[in-house]
Amino acid sequence: MARNSVQFQKGLSGPEFEQQYGSEEACREALFRWRWLEGFECPICGEQRHSAIRSRQLFQCSACRRQTSLTAGTIFAATKVALRTWFRAIHHVTQTKQGISSIELARRLGVTQSTAWTIKHKLGQVMLERDAEKLLAGRIELDDAYLGGERSGGKRGRGSPGKTPFLAAVETTPEGKPVRLKLHRVTSFCSRAVEGFAKRSLHPTCEVVSDGLGCFAADSKAGCQHTVIKTGSGARAARTPAFKWVKTALGNIKAAITGTYRSIAPKHVPRYLAEFEYRFNRRYDLAAMLPRLATAAAQTPPMPYRMLKLADVSA
């Protein structure tokens, strides 16, 4: 059997990472290029002429005299952690297929678990915002799923406590190959939730294929063409060819979460899902994930720890 070229691609190895980003100065130079693609631009007046205040690692605009740092206004803002540590975190998050827990990330970075958790979730926020506005098109496989298990003595099946519902949609080519993935937490599996997901995530020309769950028909309100394929339940349903890729994606996500994380708070589920979505959608070029995510991080507004910890990302 031929090897899967995606699974066996080289990626960015540890030695290559050290060669490219092994010093703080190398990381600063890279972030400068990725933040200001056409050279420095003052965040106040847009002026490009500037001078560097090297003793304080600041840039001063030659027009309005405003001083700004390399990380101000980005997801790295006000960080006390070295950029090299951030880059190493980006490397671990993007190059591990199954994800990485904050405890393991802390060990690899040499920081506390709390610091690793903050870095990981800020990067998750970048991923979430980066793909939020991108729409799937063409043929779409749509399915429902839960994160979390049943609690002893409670209700079983749909609606049982301890479970977080979410929707999964996979865009495929006419030949049936997976292209992109969308994952979105919902409050429940109802017509309103499906309609909202379809309007935010699917192009109106989509051809959606789903099982017989009644609420899926609501995607037609977003202009999508909807086809129902009744699968029944159990293992036979999971093997239905029409849902091959969405079932495969869901299986991989659940296995990764079970094997990597001890538990996930419902309010943080969107960031965990965004992480899997981000890696899946960029799986054809692993080596490019670090500069792509770092570039996105440089364009993402700051997310203070207080908001990161308490905010419940909208379902």
From TrEMBL:
It holds the Pfam family DDE_Tnp_IS1595. Residues 135-281 form the ISXO2-like transposase domain. It comes from the Bacteria. InterPro entries: Tnp_ISXO2-like, Transposase_Zn_ribbon. This is IS1595 family transposase. It comes from Muricoccus nepalensis.
